[in-house]
């Protein structure tokens, strides 16, 4: 894959992510903030962007979403291959909710 192809792929991914995030925020903002891991201020900004602003923001070579698993043991435990049960999903949600929300400071 050429560098230009990667940049285009990142830009496409960013646009998909922003469209999904905005749809989630406009549908149910509190749930969206929890699932996306963003603060209320960030959610308000994303929710208020026009289509042109979303496209402009997506056109970057940097992923706009962040990988939330910065704990090796947590990631290894979740990826162990066993089927997830409702309690495992709840446990993962509790662990992820303990991480601080991103802010726009």
UniProtKB/TrEMBL annotation:
One of its GO terms (cellular component) is cytoplasm. The keyword Amino-acid biosynthesis does not apply. SUPFAM superfamilies: Flagellar transcriptional activator FlhD (SSF63592). Functions in complex with FlhC as a master transcriptional regulator that regulates transcription of several flagellar and non-flagellar operons by binding to their promoter region. Activates expression of class 2 flagellar genes, including fliA, which is a flagellum-specific sigma factor that turns on the class 3 genes. Also regulates genes whose products function in a variety of physiological pathways. One of its GO terms (biological process) is bacterial-type flagellum assembly. Belongs to the FlhD family. Signal peptide: none annotated. This is Flagellar transcriptional regulator FlhD. The keyword Nucleotide-binding does not apply. Its main location: cytoplasm. Keywords: Activator, Bacterial flagellum biogenesis, Cytoplasm, Disulfide bond, DNA-binding, Transcription, Transcription regulation. The C-terminal region contains a putative helix-turn-helix (HTH) motif, suggesting that this region may bind DNA. Gene3D superfamilies: Flagellar transcriptional activator FlhD. It is found in: Cytoplasm. It comes from Cupriavidus metallidurans (strain ATCC 43123 / DSM 2839 / NBRC 102507 / CH34) (Ralstonia metallidurans). InterPro entries: Flagellar_FlhD (IPR023559), FlhD_sf (IPR036194). One of its GO terms (molecular function) is DNA binding. It holds the Pfam family FlhD. Homodimer; disulfide-linked. Forms a heterohexamer composed of two FlhC and four FlhD subunits. Each FlhC binds a FlhD dimer, forming a heterotrimer, and a hexamer assembles by dimerization of two heterotrimers.
């Amino acid at each position: 894959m050429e560098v230009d192809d990667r940049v285009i792929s990142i830009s496409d991914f960013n646009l998909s992510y922003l469209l999904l995030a905005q749809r989630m925020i406009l549908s149910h903002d509190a749930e969206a903030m929890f699932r996306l891991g963003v603060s209320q201020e960030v959610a308000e900004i994303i929710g208020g962007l026009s289509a042109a602003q979303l496209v402009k923001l997506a056109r970057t070579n940097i992923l706009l979403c962040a990988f939330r698993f910065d704990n090796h043991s947590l990631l290894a435990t979740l990826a162990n291959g066993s089927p997830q049960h409702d309690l495992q999903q709840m446990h993962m949600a509790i662990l992820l909710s303990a991480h601080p929300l991103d802010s726009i400071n």
